[in-house]
Amino acid sequence: MKLKDCYDVVVIGSGAGGGTAAEIFSRYVEKGLSVLVLEGGPFWKKENFNQKERDMSRIYFNRGAIFSKRLNIAVAAGRVVGGSTAVYTGVSFRPPEEVWQKWKKDYGLDFFNADFVQDTLDEIEEMIHVAEPPPSWDNDNNRLFREGCEKLDIPVKRLRLNLKGCQQQGLCNLGCTSGGKQGTLEVQIPLALSRGIELVHNAWVDHITPEEVVFSVKPAWPFTEANVLPEGNYKVKAKNIVLAAGSLHTPPLLLRSQKYLRTSPKNIGRYLTLHPAFNVNAIYPQVIKNDRGFPKTYYSDAFSDSEGYYLETSFYFPGVTAKNIPHMGKSHEEMMKKYRQMMSILLLSHDPARFYNRVKIDRRGNTVLDYRVDEEVQNSLIQGLRRAAAVFLAAGCEEMVFPACQKEKITPADAKNLDKLISKRYLNLIKTPLSSAHPQGGARMGADPKKSVVSPEGKLHNHDNIFIADASLFPTSVKVNPYETVMLLSHYVAKQVVKRAWGG
Amino acid sequence: MKSEKQKIALLSLAEVIIPSLQTRPMVKEKLWENFCYFLGDMDTNSQKKIQLLLFALKILSVLRYGRSYPKMNFSQRERFFLWLLHFPIALIVAGATGLKSLIYVSYYSLDESWENIDYQGPLVQRELQKELQRETK
């Protein structure tokens, strides 16, 4: 591959944001628009996925755990062509109306209206095959979640997923070997490539200026596609730059580029939200079939408004499951021996956007996550843990090991004491850190430049040709799994870029 | 991480976290390989922190028990690690927790651990095996 001297558009990132933008731009390639996508991770195709944690956790930054400075939360983010859409479960939520109405009212995002959301997402969902999974995909984990909730009169809902030709392999978080997961790795990027965009993988962007993008090509790993450019440092001129490296990497890239930019650094990286989560496990007397079917088919939003969290079904590979179980030693080993009798619930809490929660850079320009779990979120987590424990018990579990719990194991005899046993006084996030897979914010979109980083057109304030098209735009947490909202915003921003580059 | 001393320190800790390792020297070797493989792919900061923690373990064990951690018997090591998990300095607790997590991930991603938990391995691998069996027949 030979780089052009100058591109009409350079997109940084190929996940939900970058992949969606790239697909939109590719519609104009035939008419002469030149587009380059730079992805920091490898091009790892499904044929080379092997579902082994040892090999496949490389598909994440830092093996799936970017720890916060306070070590209270570990964030998972994809490092591969397709970004986090290569490793997510495909859970597809449209942004709740109350959220986008707030974004419109409080942050001046006037382009949000019911028609825009519906029309754009109808188009996106059709492309990536969003639908409810058939009941035959429910494995025991999902069935028990539903049964437990129903016994407690907790309403459950069916999740929508973006899948095509899913082989129901039971576990999804290390990439889909069948390509059933219709993320940007399978849909938008191949489509955009077929229309003539250029993609350089293993291309780590160091900084940008308003005119150029400076990056280096890193070595390709075994079992991934060979590099299209020799290893080394590169500069490429760009008439328009679209940053879509995600909340953990777009703000640091802006900060590394600060001396070339006219945007105030005050708000860059701020108002980060993470959807802090606990994944909890319980043991049942019988073998539970989790290695077939789909790991997530139900959720409950019954406590979203009142207590601030969602409950979703989930199930993970043994290494991550072991890490999520508190304690250690013999009791932990005994619990793991019952891996086949284990059911999991994911507790996903809504965290408010706080100025002090931020992503910044260290002296070498590396990402530093500075995140406090405030009282409101801690209370929400405790309520959610109690609720999850009740669901497990209602579904017939025989024991469970929980964070923030007074006892090492909770059994059915403890059913009436859950409020006492699971309490904030036992919550120690240093010993049982939270996890996150939904980083959002950090380059807030808003009409007021004093309170935001990006204009409602998606442009970096004080710049006409630098755009952002990823989750870092979110003014607040979207409260649900965010990829559809990322695609929605990216779709919108990409159209603004086309207007600028192509006069509409 | 390549030193023999670091290996001994890490594996003596791993035995406390996963007690069945005491009778499985071959699996311990594989765990060490896997641990190094995982750690080698993590950022420089994480690598430094883990190495620093292993060093701190040694110092703290000498200060508290008068001998280095790998030279203690199993129950002393267990008590020592639990003490670390309740240490008054949050950074030590967080480091010990992080190390524990990395040991669990390194161990349970080994094929050799799966038999103990009745996990049959990745489905794609099972399908390949079935295919090979069919071809052999």
Question: How is the topology of this model organized?
Answer:
The complex is a heterodimer of chains A (504) and B (137).
Chain A: E1 6-12, H1 16-26, E2 35-38, H2 53-56, E3 66-67, E4 73-75, H3 97-107, H4 114-128, E5 130-131, H5 140-151, E6 157-158, E7 161-162, H6 188-194, E8 198-200, E9 203-208, E10 212-217, E11 232-243, H7 250-256, E12 277-283, E13 298-300, E14 309-314, H8 318-324, H9 329-337, E15 342-349, E16 358-361, E17 367-370, H10 375-394, E18 399-401, H11 418-421, E19 434-436, E20 466-468, H12 483-502
Chain B: H1 4-17, H2 25-40, H3 44-65, H4 74-85, H5 90-108, H6 111-117, H7 123-136
Helix pairs in contact in B: 1-4, 2-5, 3-5
What are the key terms here?
heterodimer; A: 504 residues; alpha/beta; 7-stranded mixed sheet; 6-stranded antiparallel sheet; 12 helices; 20 strands; B: 137 residues; mainly alpha; 0% strand
Largest sheet properties of chain B = none
List the secondary-structure elements of chain B in sequence, H or E: HHHHHHH
Q: List the uncertain runs of chain A.
A: none
Number of helices of chain A: 12
| Biggest pleated-sheet summary of chain A | 7 strands, mixed
Low-confidence stretches of chain B: none
**Mean pLDDT figure of chain A:** 96
Instruction: Tally the beta strands of chain A.
Output: 20
Largest interface: A-B, 41 and 43 residues
The amount of helix of chain B comes to over 70%
Query: Beta-strand percentage of chain B?
Result: under 5%
